[in-house]
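Long-time lurker. I teach an intro course on protein structure, and each term I like to show students one example going from raw sequence to a predicted 3D structure in token notation. This year I'd like something fresh instead of my usual example. Would anyone be willing to generate the tokens for the chain below so I can use it in lecture? Attribution to the forum is fine with me.
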Amino acid sequence: MNPEPFLQLDRVIHEKGRLAIMSMLAASPELSFTELRDALEMTDGNLTSHMRTLQEAGYVSVSKSYQDNRPLTTCSMTAAGKKAFTGYINLLEQVVQQNRPK
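-- Reply from a regular --
Happy to contribute to a lecture. Here you go:
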């Protein structure tokens, strides 16, 4: 087994909660904080922490606005996030392929 592809996996994305967030944002151009929180069954604090890490890496953007006089926080994947997520998925596929029984 060649461990090189596995060692190259992006640690920011690889964490279970952040991988789930990135997967959801890859499938939708924009999701509200509430939609992410409820779908992933995370607490506000847990989701905020993961979003902050992804934001600091430049993988997601968070915007705040108002809808019907209520605060609305929306999240979306940046171009850098899309590139990083695609690279992550490709490396993960390499790891799976090289370890598939022949």
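Some talking points for your students: The chain has a mean pLDDT of 93. Residues 79-98 form the longest helix (20 residues).
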